[in-house]
Amino acid sequence: MLFQVRMDVKIPLDMPAEKANEIKAVEKAYSQDLQRQGKWRHIWRITGQYSNISIFDVESNEELHTILQGLPLYPYMNIEVMALNRHPSAIREDDS
Amino acid sequence: MLFQVRMDVKIPLDMPAEKANEIKAVEKAYSQDLQRQGKWRHIWRITGQYSNISIFDVESNEELHTILQGLPLYPYMNIEVMALNRHPSAIREDDS
Amino acid sequence: MLFQVRMDVKIPLDMPAEKANEIKAVEKAYSQDLQRQGKWRHIWRITGQYSNISIFDVESNEELHTILQGLPLYPYMNIEVMALNRHPSAIREDDS
Amino acid sequence: MLFQVRMDVKIPLDMPAEKANEIKAVEKAYSQDLQRQGKWRHIWRITGQYSNISIFDVESNEELHTILQGLPLYPYMNIEVMALNRHPSAIREDDS
Amino acid sequence: MLFQVRMDVKIPLDMPAEKANEIKAVEKAYSQDLQRQGKWRHIWRITGQYSNISIFDVESNEELHTILQGLPLYPYMNIEVMALNRHPSAIREDDS
Amino acid sequence: MLFQVRMDVKIPLDMPAEKANEIKAVEKAYSQDLQRQGKWRHIWRITGQYSNISIFDVESNEELHTILQGLPLYPYMNIEVMALNRHPSAIREDDS
Amino acid sequence: MLFQVRMDVKIPLDMPAEKANEIKAVEKAYSQDLQRQGKWRHIWRITGQYSNISIFDVESNEELHTILQGLPLYPYMNIEVMALNRHPSAIREDDS
Amino acid sequence: MLFQVRMDVKIPLDMPAEKANEIKAVEKAYSQDLQRQGKWRHIWRITGQYSNISIFDVESNEELHTILQGLPLYPYMNIEVMALNRHPSAIREDDS
Amino acid sequence: MLFQVRMDVKIPLDMPAEKANEIKAVEKAYSQDLQRQGKWRHIWRITGQYSNISIFDVESNEELHTILQGLPLYPYMNIEVMALNRHPSAIREDDS
Amino acid sequence: MLFQVRMDVKIPLDMPAEKANEIKAVEKAYSQDLQRQGKWRHIWRITGQYSNISIFDVESNEELHTILQGLPLYPYMNIEVMALNRHPSAIREDDS
């Protein structure tokens, strides 16, 4: 099942750069692992923002929630979830 | 270059069903042609809405505008455009 | 899978009462059939509004979209969908 | 009498984890006690959010206010209340 | 139980004055009858608007909904309901 | 002259409970004194919120501003003022 | 007593120009009469809008409501009222 | 040229009263000097708010910006600027 | 003096194409004439919208209002005006 | 390709003036260098705000993102990006 998720990141200005970089590195590995599993189907940066638009393909709402709650940057994010369907005009088989 | 586009369709309640269906058929063909060209990369239905979330991959803002303005349903749509970038954590080569 | 759906109904002021009542009767039967199937788990009226808050329990986003699009009042509704999960503090087994 | 309540929790980033966990444990017990009494009828997590959608069945606005004000997480919550009615199309006897 | 209700009236510009006046007269009688019963406790005009702020004292959400739905101007109104409680600092006995 | 005032209180989380209670006690006395004078006509708690809806009956905008600015909780409040009139359908003599 | 009033005018596109001009002429006379009486203290056009910002100096909320409701363009306006006070830093005696 | 400016002041709760009073005194002198020069034509307090509505009469956008940026309370203000014109119905010669 | 103006055009769906084209042709000539005079400094299409972002360089708010009110599409536009200044970091002499 | 970017700057009130001035000086040099390269085509101050409206002419969304992310004031800014096209009515050759 497909979901669009928008994540806006606000790291506190007073977080030491070292700690921020550490969290970001863990975040990147976490995201790439899920991408390899096919659960985090797409991730794009929003131009000019510390934000991304992502497409998830998961078994259930529960799985999506568990993934999002596990994000290392979760405490510093604002997250919006939107349920998606295959579009009747889509020609890609794998965009169901 | 990548853009996310959200299209919300509001066909007037008094448009004859025949005319509406005709426009939708042309719209579908128009969309699928652009999908085959690789310019309209993804299209998903928003659950519960007569709306879609699409990803376009175009040469320029001008090309995107021309494509959108040419949509048969354009006069009945509200459209929002958001510029996207490849995300530094993305692992898909073709999601640049 | 659980979803909250809010439906706000705006029937045009110039629709003949007879036609409106007919649509509402079909809507009621449609809703009650889905309630009996366990897919439309709850439906409450919002006090003072021609609106309801409903909880759906469906197999997928696709099933939810098909149900909503099939509502006889669909052309006259504004619909908002929100994905829900079982809450870790919930004690009801059937509220998963 | 039925009410929908949405609770969005924002625990300050600098609250020690131990204190946060303690409050959450008391919150859970408080919620489950009210669920057992039948006053807190439903509680669902909003996917991707530290938020819930709950349905309360109380004697009066006063009882609802007392319950909400007594939430251990109350100082860290944004709360929205919406009065609900039994819906004329509902088939569940206990959803009045 | 107390509720604040805000009603914003938008009568269509093309409704004949005679019909509008007739509806308003019935509305006035309807409101005054409920005021005499003590259910419609207060009604104030919002300065400069075709809107009112009212306080209702009813047995239940259901009773409030029935009253509002019965308003002759109901099809032309936007209505917002807000549950109220007696305030701990209030000194009026009858403002419970 | 009548005004509706909505007050939303946000006491900083780090204010010592003792200080907060002291301010609230002075606030209560301040409010009750004005209620006895007939200037603060009504005060209701908004269900689930640390907020109130109040009706003031004052000589002028100046008097209302002076009263509001004198509230002990004023530095911690968000305040909205709305001018009201006697409603042509009102039957209470003292609601002018 | 002083009030700021913002008026946004939306004359229906299908109103005959003759009728619109007639209403506007009556509106102008109505406004200028109140300006001469000192009740409509200021009126400015908002640049680029069919809107004005006005300052009224009236005896009461009631008087303001009566004036606004009497505007010939009232059925085609959106109106916002904001209560004002003399500012402690003002040096103009007549801006009280 | 005329502009309406709305200024909303938010002095941090932890600023020492002495410092706040000092800034306010300089602000008052600054404002009154500009009032005497005829550049700050009007200033009104918004009832119940630490906010003002002002009318400026300046040579250019640049002059307005310089004046606003020079306000002693500028770092603690939210400012909104709206360009105004003489209204065709205005009868005051000096309200051009 | 510089102003940014955003114009969003909504031509009614039932306006005959011929009439719409005629208005657009006059609009184009009107705009180009002002561009040649240097008063309409820039005009850009917003991608995907029937909207433009323009920069005007005028003598006064009055001149801007007269220009905007004279737009052939003015009755079908929503217009927003924002006063601009030369930026202290700008290097273009003609962007003052 | 053209983009409008709005930047709203919020430097924390407790940043030492020396540090703030240093950042601003680097920001100015950074901006002027990009202006000389023709990538940052225009920059205007919004009257009364610590904000600017800028027009960028870049090769791609990626280039725009890199430029914006490199702004010395980036951590203290809110940024909005809007894709622009040459307007069919534009007469300036270099405004494509």
Search tags:
alpha+beta; homodecamer; muconolactone delta-isomerase activity (chains A, B, C, D, E, F, G, H, I, J); 96 residues; aromatic hydrocarbons catabolism (chains A, B, C, D, E, F, G, H, I, J); 4-stranded antiparallel β-sheet; elongated; EC 5.3.3.4 (chains A, B, C, D, E, F, G, H, I, J); Alpha-Beta Plaits; Dimeric_a/b-barrel (chains A, B, C, D, E, F, G, H, I, J)
Walk me through this protein's architecture:
Ten copies of one chain form a homodecamer. Chain A has a four-stranded antiparallel sheet with strand order 2-3-1-4. Chain A is 30% helix and 33% strand. The first copy, chain A, has a single domain, classed as 2-Layer Sandwich (Alpha-Beta Plaits), CATH 3.30.70. The first copy, chain A, is α+β, with helices and mostly antiparallel strands. In chain A, a hairpin with a 4-residue loop joins strand 2 (40-46) and strand 3. The longest helix of chain A is centred in the N-terminal third of the chain and has 20 residues, at 17-36. Chain A is built from two helices and four strands. The I-J interface holds I 2, 4, 27-28, 31-32, 35-36, 42-48, 52-53, 55, 82-92, 95 and J 2, 4, 27-28, 31-32, 35-36, 42-48, 52-53, 55, 82-92, 95. Strand 2 (40-46) of chain C pairs antiparallel with strand 4 of chain D, so a sheet runs across the interface. Chains A, B, C, D, E, F, G, H, I, J: Keywords: Aromatic hydrocarbons catabolism, Isomerase. Chains A, B, C, D, E, F, G, H, I, J: It holds the Pfam family MIase.
In a nutshell, what does this entry contain?
Chain A is α+β, with helices and mostly antiparallel strands and 96 residues long. The first copy, chain A, is 30% helix and 33% strand. The first copy, chain A, has helices at residues 17-36, 61-69, and strands spanning 2-9, 40-46, 51-57, 77-86.
